[in-house]
Design a protein that fits this description.
This protein has 12 helices and 9 strands. It is an alpha/beta fold. The protein folds into 2 domains: 143 residues, Aspartate/ornithine carbamoyltransferase (Rossmann fold); 154 residues, Aspartate/ornithine carbamoyltransferase (Rossmann fold, 3-Layer(aba) Sandwich). It binds aspartic acid (ASP).
Amino acid sequence: MTGFVRKDLIGLQGLSADEIGYVLDVADQFRFVNLRSIKKVPTLRGKSVVHLFLEPSTRTRTSFDIAAKRLSADTFSISGGSSSTTKGETLLDTARNLAAMHPDIIVLRHARAGAPGLLSDALPNTSIINAGDGRHEHPTQALLDMLTIRRALGGLKGRTVTIVGDITHSRVARSNIWGLRTMGAKVRVCGPRTLIPPGIEELGVEVHDNLQDGIRKADVVMMLRIQKERLSRGGHFFPTSREYSRMFGLNREKLRRWARKDVLIMHPGPINRGVELEPEVADGEWSVILDQVENGVAVRMAVMYLVLGGEGAARREGRG
Ligand code: ASP
């Protein structure tokens, strides 16, 4: 079956190659809306989208908000500091109250893995889109990463993608591993052993603890942020940022010596400049980091459109 017929997007684990390919195809079409002088289509007119961000975010939240507005949805934003969760209300109570106001979509970011799944079960009439849950998944990030690679290299199948850094704490890494493997790419993870979860090989990835080997002949190198907020207190995963940068940070010289000339450099943001990436690389000719951000809006437009039923629903409701 081709297409994407799901109420929610909770993660990429369990999605088929057809489903992922379809979302990317639809996103490719929405890209054009973002390049027009009038960047708005009536696709989600009359629909309402709640952005419930209970953990900090700049890029993802703005990107979802722009995407919803370009589809003509009404949007409402609730963030950690301004929500009743700070007064002790549980996530389910917050969500049930929101659902009683009948939004069509809740976009949820939450520090706890599994929170979006919980909402999805509790709210059968609302579509839930996971905008990052703990260390678990960040599916729209991986979709925009895959769209960026597909556009730059013409496809994902057979390509080698190395994900470098804090794999243990990264929902971006996990969603990319599921998505890229499903799409037929080879995935390597590379970082200090202390930041690579034991048994990750079972997901079908190669493990490297040496940057030179990890990036050799890779088509794409995805650098991750060192997630200071998720490194457990008192845990020592690497000696110092300087040491980390020396071993796993990328600069022009290392790229020139060890990587393919035409390698693509990606980063989900926010970048710790001077730690995992030197500015000469982040802003250099290999970097597609701003393409990722651009593609993010199109991917989120596609996901919102599809969880609400896509073309069929739009036609039935006179929106298409
Ligand atoms: N923005 C991404 C996330 O929310 C990556 C990061 O924060 O390092 O997971």
